[in-house]
């Protein structure tokens, strides 16, 4: 009988191909193997134990160790380490990825909270998720302050995962963080789309002033009295033509009157 498949303590899915949990033990290896990981991010005081290193090597998993002290009373995670971790998490070349600390709660939770800020989650939503993984269910003042004051510069890779801003830049400025794009084209594409949208809106407004009402009437499918317009190839009734001309000339007269004043 094969051994049971046991997830790591506090295991959870952060987003597509991004997983979190506590320090993996031997009994968790079969479960981790099923995730087909490419990267394991270890936020722990000392290098991973030999057994975990061997597991990663056997499964072709790249292990990245960011040294973070054991959580006691103060927050052991620095903003620079949080930035490093977030940048690793948002790089699709590292996916699927498993991030862990010693217990899968505080340090891992703080990194995920910083990631959520990058995703533009509201602070109440970020705090709510963070609290779900804490032992006592109570966030300390230091942890709350760490999350709220996280406002660093994040380097955005050439490609981003679909769960980050739906895979594309749709904003001019991030509300809380500074962003540095490896590919300036991401911003340029957004600006081009913005200018194109503005040009279309201006063109529509111009057409509304001078509008070609006759063209719109030929495309309408409706009833007027006993006349029915089935499609664009159907001849428009004399009644509708007369009405269209009357409305058109009425608006045109109004426009000319405004220009002569």
TrEMBL record:
It comes from the Eukaryota. InterPro entries: Prot-tyrosine_phosphatase-like, Siw14-like. SUPFAM superfamilies: (Phosphotyrosine protein) phosphatases II. One of its GO terms (molecular function) is phosphatase activity. This is Tyrosine specific protein phosphatases domain-containing protein. It comes from Diversispora epigaea. The lineage of its organism: Eukaryota, Fungi, Fungi incertae sedis, Mucoromycota, Glomeromycotina.
């Amino acid at each position: 009988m094969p051994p049971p498949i046991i997830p790591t303590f506090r295991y959870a899915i952060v987003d597509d191909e991004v997983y979190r949990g506590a320090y993996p033990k031997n009994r968790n290896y079969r479960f981790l193997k099923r995730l087909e990981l490419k990267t394991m991010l270890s936020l722990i005081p000392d290098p991973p134990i030999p057994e975990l290193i061997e597991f990663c090597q056997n499964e072709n998993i790249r292990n990245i160790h960011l040294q973070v002290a054991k959580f006691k009373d103060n927050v052991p995670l620095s903003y620079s380490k949080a930035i490093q971790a977030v940048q690793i998490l948002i790089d699709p070349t590292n996916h699927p990825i498993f991030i862990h600390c010693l217990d899968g709660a505080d340090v891992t939770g703080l990194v995920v909270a910083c990631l959520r800020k990058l995703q533009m989650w509201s602070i109440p939503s970020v705090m709510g998720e963070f609290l779900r993984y804490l032992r006592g269910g109570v966030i300390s003042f230091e942890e709350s302050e760490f999350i709220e004051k996280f406002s660093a510069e994040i380097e955005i890779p050439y490609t981003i995962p679909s769960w980050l801003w739906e895979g594309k830049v749709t904003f001019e400025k991030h509300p809380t963080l500074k962003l540095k794009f490896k590919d300036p084209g991401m911003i340029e594409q957004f600006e081009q789309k913005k200018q194109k949208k503005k040009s279309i809106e201006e063109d529509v407004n111009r057409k509304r002033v001078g509008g070609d009402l006759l063209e719109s009437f030929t495309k309408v499918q409706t009833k007027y009295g006993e006349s029915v317009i089935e499609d664009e190839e159907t001849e428009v009734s004399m009644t509708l033509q007369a009405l269209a001309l009357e409305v058109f000339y009425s608006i045109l007269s109004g426009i000319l009157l405004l220009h002569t004043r």
